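Intended use. Records like the one below are meant for learning the mapping from a protein sequence to its folded structure. Do not use them to infer anything beyond what is encoded.
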Amino acid sequence: MTVDTTRALIETYFAAFNAGDTAKMASLVTEDVAHDVNQGERRIGREAFAAFNAHMTRCYREELSEMVIFVTGDGARAAAEFIVSGTYLVTDDGLPEASGQTYRLPAGTFFEIRDGKIARITTYYNLTDWSAQVVG
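Structure written out for the chain above:
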C-alpha cells in the first residue's frame, strides 16, 4: 500500500461511517479484522465487527468531524484524530439511561492495513467525559 491508497481507504471508511453505511465499512476490513473498542474486549472477524456496528447503530447516532489522518511512509499503518458528535438513542448495557442526550468529544483510531484492507481498528475516547455529558 502507498500513503495515498491507505489515506483513501481510511477516508472511505470514515465517509461510510458518517453515512451510516455499515455494510460498506465491513467491506473495507479483512475477514479476520481485529477490532479493539474503547473500554471493551477485542473482537475478531468481519462478522463480529458487523454485529458491533449493528449494536452501535441501534444505540447511538454519531457523526465524525474535524478529521486529521496520519499515514506511515509505507502505508501499512494509519491513525486518525477527530471529534465525535452524537445522540444517545437507546440505553446501552452498563451505561447511563438513554433519553436522546447529545455529546461531543475527541477520539482517535489506529489502523493496520493488509492486502488493501483494514486488518486492525483500535479506537479510544474518554468514557468519563462521555458519561458526564450524557448524565449531565
